[in-house]
Protein 1
Amino acid sequence: MWTSLCTFESIIQYTMASINLILQGTKNPAVIYIRLRDGRKLDIKAKTNYHINPANWDEKEQRPVKKLLKNIDYANLDTDLSGLKISLLTEYNKSKGVKTIDSKWLNEFINPTEPKSKYPLNLVDYIDTYIEFKKKDVKETTIKKCKGIKELLIRYEKHTKSVIFIKDINQDFKVGFENYCEEMGYAKNTTAKNLIYIKAFCNHAKSNGLETHFQLDSVKIKYNRAKHIYLNNEEIAKIECLEDKNLTDGLVNAKYWLLISCYCAQRVSDFMRFDKSMIRYEKNRKGELKPLLEFTQVKTGKIMTIPLHSKIIEILEKFDGNFPKKISDQRYNDHIKNVCKAAGINELTLGKLFNPETKLQEEKFYEKHLLVSSHIGRRSFATNNYGKIPTTFLMQMTGHATESMFLTYIGKSNKDLAIEMTDFF
């Protein structure tokens, strides 16, 4: 931002010069020009780095129309333009009689030649810099996510036939990027997560001294409230009642892993690694020996110790004290859909599935077993036990860091909580 300890009025008294901000043309967005005049001997102008919709410009006041100044973006623009005028007059007073004052001088003032940055100025290349800075502090999954966003941005650059610079990440970029991702079939919440990462890249670049757009902080990213699919207790009971003899060996194996997931509240990347060697026994406050399971979460690196549910113990007894046979995530995802289908979990449920013909995520009512995925056990445990087990204990099981994150995870809104609170009034 252009800064000075002086005010525009206090500077202008030392010179006959005048400065005006003008638009040339009615096309939206229009470039804001700055014009410096000093009597008849000097009249120069140059493009600034600012733009505005001509409909939102007060030509007489040479600023955004007053009613828009309540908006932070227009308020920041107004402040920047005022600072620019002050800084230009200050520089003119210093340079007059010392330097040649002409259009070249003015353009150099507006866009001073900067020493070459040791960091990339374009977003795609800067992601590699970000990864280099962060690779020792974050999980490999985060690095993989960053690389995935980089590939997406490369495709977006080809689509727009332009290079995306860090300083260009603003409201217009957000809208264009969202539209492109929607056309490509990305879910809205996936696009929102990608934009959060993109803002993080830019803020990291800013901390390294690179220029960012004045709108960056005001780029708002909204998550759409997703339909939380989970298995209720009745549906879990249906799965438990499935007779193994009516299922293939693969489906029997998947059935018990699904039940384990519904009673341990862990991600598939964690529970599929469970082994009897992770089980130990400790005495509770009553002096009773109770089984605990200790492991390290893959995603967070957090060391977890959780109580072993009696239902899981019953399953282990079926496998001579061992956990079921380990299977790949993809095969597990496929098998549990068939397990739930066999259990009659076919209630029409609103959800999203990828349509290979349209290449898009389509939201509509599907038989519920089609919407089942490897994450459903964790959410089922959290949702089914909310209000029955203290939230602090549930968070310990799921590994959520804050209650707000936990409540969002199980789909509880402020309205839901308010209705629940009426029980106490």
Note: The longest strand covers residues 42-52.
Protein 2
Amino acid sequence: MQALHNPTSQKIILALISLAAFMATLDTSIVNISLPTIADSFHVDMGLVSWVVLAYLLVLAGLMLACGKLGDLAGFRRVFIAGFAVFTLGSLLCGLAASIGLLVAFRVVQGIGAAAIEAIAPAMIALYLPAEKRGWALGIMMTIVSLAIAAGPVLGGYITEFVSWHWIFFINVPIGIVAVILAIRYLPADIVPKSAGRFDGLGAALILVALATLIYPLNQGLDLGWTSPVIVGSFVASLLFWGLFIVHERRCAAPLIDMRLFLSGNYLWGNLAGMFILLSFAGTEFLLPFYFELVRGYSTEITGIFLAIPAVTLMLSGPVAGRITDKFGSRGLMIGAALVAGATMYLYSLFDATTGTPFLVLALAVAGFAIGLFMPPNMSLILGSGRHEEGGVASSVMMTIRNVGAVLGVAILGTVAVTVILATVGGQYVVDAAPPLLVPGFRAAFLVGMAACLITAAISFFIKEQRAGAGAAK
């Protein structure tokens, strides 16, 4: 399949891909704020209701690689439409769920659909749009994703408060139906190479278990304790299944992941850089609400406004970064953005109980601006480094590594903050401690985030410059 040259078709397809990214991202942020209401509705505790989020995340991460491979084998159009249809059906079922068990089960259905559309969305941009527009299109997609991040808590809170929690799922249904109809109408027919091979079912099952048993303890380690038998056992199981997966892939005639992908230095370094920057960004985003509410004493509503600031500046910088990438390449922008992000993490480490509002706003704004500058060139570099016939796998590997980086960020920075705070307060219950006693924990965690950004910049130095649109007519 060659890139489409009809500007109208390009815009419609970009809108579809961006809508898919928006819905999948929104569904990870809109639900969190409704969990207490859902728990009360079903008369269950927060531990059980947390599976409404965890089940979705585990399936999303675990199936992404399999869905990327299916895209290469069966065609992006088929997988994208099927993913959107399954996601829409899952949303309807979630809204109709009459018990917490059914809600968790239907969130699994939603996660399957989200995995399909998230895995191949970036690859579809690389396939359907001309190379000289790739960075710009990825910047637009990142803008839409950041809009979903910013809108999720606000929209979820409003719907839960004034309508019903059921409608945080029902809202997806009409949008999903329209998207499926447009995808059927406008996405080009798939041209699948005869040499596509078979689907590696065993490899897909092994990596699903390997990722699930890795992400579960990273998500739950702070709550259950890092040395608890469940957490340690999960890590051991993950290590075992990763080993089995690698052995199987090396022996399989048609592996789920062709390890030759990583022989491309740009693909390897680009993915590592993306993982470390997400580690920093996701970890700090996880901690900031606690800083604003516990240290500053702000309400949830005011905290939400502060947290929307980086999302807004990310929206502004994403398309600009895409244009710069198309013209000048990825390496320099990635290095500069990572260094600015590192400087911002240092500014975060200066936050205390009396930091002025202008300083807070400036630091948050620059953080979003830096991430917005980093993501489009990074994604463009990665997608431009993979082989055309494995675009789905290259895209899904990238998205999986980013998800793992985000989960690592929450686990590592969260653990650092809690460990330092507990040592500072001397066993006192954290929420009862005086705000100044909490500051050292946040400061230590933000400095770890700064280190991750500096590692990102160092990794980016190994990238060999390439321009997606070099030589292309503008």
Note: The domain at 1-188 is CATH 1.20.1250.20 (Growth Hormone; Chain: A;).
Protein 3
Amino acid sequence: MIKRIFVRTRSLKAGMKIDQAIVDRMGRILIARGAVLDEYLIDSLLRMGVTSIYIREGEEDPEEEKISLLAQSVIEKTRVDDRTKVKLSESVKKRVAQGIQYLYNNTESQDFTDATNNIANDLMQAISDNDAIAVDIGALKISDEYTFKHSVDVATMAMIVAKQHGLNKNQIYEIGVTGLLHDLGKSKIPNEVLNKPARLTDEEFEIMKQHSVYGYNILKEKESVSDQVRLGVLQHHEKVNGKGYPMGVCADKMHPYAKILSVVDIYDALVTARPYKKAFSQRDAVEMIMSMTNELDLGVMKSFLGSMILYPVDSIVQLSNGEKAKVVENNSGYILRPKVVGIESGKIYDLGKDMRCNNIIIL
């Protein structure tokens, strides 16, 4: 598997493979992408004032798409790094996965609040470490167990959306806690309903709908949990048109945390496979979110679309015109329509801004 790593030029060693083209002011390629560096080339980079470059590590996949020299040149000139994305290290993922399982299995524990805060602190630190303002929504993988994975995914996305939405640090932290605990009430749902490997009956769904009330009641007994967190947990299935549950309140009665959680909760549920349903593709899930203008808060939806990255830069996509292309830049506000370059033709398709590309979509 190939990895692309950003390295300071002074740390380069002979034998490393460069993963970008070095061009002069006229656009002429001085060092081709894929070239193996030697001491002479490293010295040349230093003399040219190149302080850092991308190198390639790992074995090349024989299935990897072949990119023409023309396309490589265009890609190097047009490529723009994605906005800083939240990243969770493997150690943090493991710690968070263990912590969330502990919470859901020990709701009466005296350590409940400390365990919750430890997880929220890990997520907050991951966002703060590199000032993350976006999420690669295909890269969140915490646990294979649905409830735990879902809770951490929702918390992480909710924190980034809250940041995009203009909430302050304390509110971002609190919505992280709310996201972690939003399904806590499922610990009170009978296992035969919670883990049923088929679609629920109407009667079973009425039982399942009580989980937000159960979660609220669990947290009501914990003095260290704020009213804002409790309300977010209680209302995360409410809709702005009053057709949600458990109370059927409208937008003016919904807590701001609930408005954010309702969007990311629906998205994550859509893209997750369950025994009784297949996962929707990320694209289809985003389109479904965009269609729910009468159910979800429009401002929150805009913040969601503005902070999620569906097609990370450097990913290969299939266009509806039959050409494969590489993503070179994501267009803010146009989550489904990045700028791409055809890997054979080298043609630039700015799907979000070029009117000539209106009839082209990513399949």
Note: The mean pLDDT is 87.
Protein 4
Amino acid sequence: MKVTTMTQLTVDGVMQGNGGSTEEDRRSGFVRGGWAMGAGDDETFSFITQTYQRADAFLFGRRTYELFAGSWGEIAEMRAHPIGVALNEAPKYLASTTLTEPGWADTTLLSGDLAVAISELKAKPGGELQVHGSGALVRWLLANDLVDEMTLLIVPVVLGQGARLFPDGGPDIALDLVDSRVDSKGVTIQVYRPAGRPRYATSTTTWRREGSGSA
């Protein structure tokens, strides 16, 4: 399986508290939650649903796992939604050292060396091991070169506060653009594949200036 991630974030890279209200996630004094409500048109919602439906399995960090388990895993209306059906029917893997007894059916707690455990999952036959939300986990996966493809849904808003997907001092990663689209509400969907480290210009790089050629 390949590890794929899907993350909703703002133009300034914030992914914290995108859900229902300002009360969803107030860590570190964050008070601008709920910024993604109403973002995206029907085509974007369809794209998100179809993404969940093609997953062979899901991988979660603790916080997103608990949020999803208490909503998609328990609320009847959400369980009946195609996303809920996909989540409840597929195997789920949890990367956590603090949650030792996951309550959502068909969940496996990954213990021991996480990099080894995920590498073993990647070696299994199948399509996608999907990661939704789970910011700390996604950052760790990227730092350990374990992400095969990442989808960013960028909502046209700047928050100026909140936890970002790409932190200061994180790894540098070159990306190949696989797909790009923008919906009628201005939400952009970018699909990338990590492509090693970026190439940087050096002091010996020369730039050809317009009109600088010899006569």
Note: Residues 2-194 form a domain with the Dihydrofolate Reductase, subunit A fold (CATH 3.40.430.10).
